[in-house]
Amino acid sequence: MSIGTSMVVFSQFFGSACGLALAETDFSNSLKSALKKYAPGVNAELVSELGAAGVRGAVGTEQLAGVLKAYNEAVTYTFVSLSRLVEF
Known about the structure:
Elements: H1 2-38, H2 44-58, H3 61-87
Helix pairs in contact: 1-3
């Protein structure tokens, strides 16, 4: 009984860790490509380092709409791709 429980707990933690690593990689890659499309003048590395909370102070008001649209597309793409992965 205890071996079975420990295997279930291990599988849950291991699956979550792998899913988080995949989601983070997928999000950062899709954010960089979406920034090139919607806000071409913005430094993609800087936006990735600052995160969603710090981007408003680092990006001008004329580029903010494109950056927010890029974030929206990246988050949506990440959720859709991971939900397809979970289906199997």
